[in-house]
Amino acid sequence: MSIKLRLTVLSFLQFFIWGAWLITIGAYWFQTKQWSGAQFGAIFSTMGIASIFMPSLMGIVADKWINAEKLYGVLHICGAITLCTIPLVTDPGVFFWVILLNMIFYMPTLSLSIAVSYSALKTQGLDVVKDYPPIRVWGTIGFIAAMWAVTFLGFEKSANQFYVAAGAALLLGVYAFTLPACPPPSKGASSRSLVDALGLKSFALLRDRKLATFFAFALLLGAALQLTNAYGDTFLHDFDKIPAYRDTLSVQHPAFIMSISQISETLFILAIPFFLRRFGIKQVMLFSMVAWVLRFGLLAFSNPGGGLWMIILSCIVYGMAFDFFNISGSLFVETQTQPSIRASAQGLFMMMTNGFGAVLGSSISGLVIQNYFTDAAGNKDWHGIWLAFAAYALVIAVLFVFIFKHKHEEQVVENEYSEPAVAA
């Protein structure tokens, strides 16, 4: 089996696990358990809390002591066990801690999967910018497949969604041990400082002004990502209260409609090499921010009836919003770091986006929605909510234009995005 096919299987299962419950957990929380909305914001903050320390910590472990593919497998097996316990929880407070434990195991696998894939591709003499996006596309397809399986099996409001995710996690955990060896690049190296000894060298990247600015905006965009993950499915489910929309496809199977976002991802992922080489990281990330503005703005004026086209269009632009930030960002980090800190540098990027960014987005948005956009009866003003999110993304885009400094030269970009530069 070729290395590309083996990594394709990895990518598919990696995101199948997440897709099985991430978008539909809101329906399980609100519709089945009927727990409060204020507590739900805390549930979505768990991935942010875990991402603050686990990706970087596990990246350090992979860079210094344990093969990345073995560590990756162990984490997924532990995650599978945790997912199986979620349906047994009957208290929202306990639910928070169990989900947090699951996220502690899952979130570092996102950056480790990138580190393992990049290492395997480079070992075979392949170009990560050219060859990784088509592999990563299958991660999005896996996410879509999981969403479709859950919604059409009738599991959107059921605890069975967690068993589906657990089965995939166990399979991937075992499969990881068959992947090409990705030994710690720093193992056995003599440490000249405490920073080197603790494996914290990747944090030195923050001393570079351009990279520090990049990570700061990664944090802010990470907050935007969590907004649609947390509220997109719930937004469509809320139209069930309106008789005219109750029997529409969007309301009956919200996960199916929202999966258009992931279908769009597959197209934009394949376009990343062209856009990076043609426009550079600054323009690509700016495209992402503008796409977030459109994503939220379209949802503000949409509905499952005559406004369905706006929901669909918002899902299409989501592909650009997500990919041009997440995938391009990881490639940019790869070009700016030494191979010896590859895993921990990707962990640092993950910490900023799905760590601090997720905590910021889920916690603040939860408070804002509860205090300013929810009436006494618990009904949400979705028009105002989405417009507020659109304004947030617009402010970030304007600031990014003036603050982030990066000169793009098309004639040298082939080298820039083919071999990793040595960080100063």
What does this molecule look like?
With 424 residues, this protein is an all-alpha fold. It has a single domain, classed as Growth Hormone, Chain: A (Up-down Bundle), CATH 1.20.1250.20. 75% of the residues lie in helices and 0% in strands. The chain has 15 helices and no strands. It has helices at residues 3-19, 25-33, 37-64, 68-85, 92-123, 128-152, 160-176, 194-198, 209-237, 249-252, 254-300, 308-335, 342-372, 382-403, 413-416. The longest helix has 47 residues, at 254-300. It starts with a helix and ends in an 8-residue tail after the last helix. The model is unreliable at 411-424 (pLDDT under 50).
List keywords for this structure.
globular; 15 helices; disordered C terminus; Growth Hormone, Chain: A
Q: Number of domains in the coordinates? A: 1
Q: Give the C-alpha Rg.
A: 21 Å
Amino-to-carboxy terminus distance: 38 Å
CATH architecture: Up-down Bundle
Briefly say what this structure is.
The chain is mostly helical.
Task: Give the helix/strand layout.
Blueprint: H1 3-19, H2 25-33, H3 37-64, H4 68-85, H5 92-123, H6 128-152, H7 160-176, H8 194-198, H9 209-237, H10 249-252, H11 254-300, H12 308-335, H13 342-372, H14 382-403, H15 413-416
Helix pairs in contact: 1-5, 1-6, 1-7, 3-5, 3-13, 4-5, 4-7, 5-13, 6-11, 9-11, 9-12, 9-13, 9-14, 11-12, 11-14, 12-13
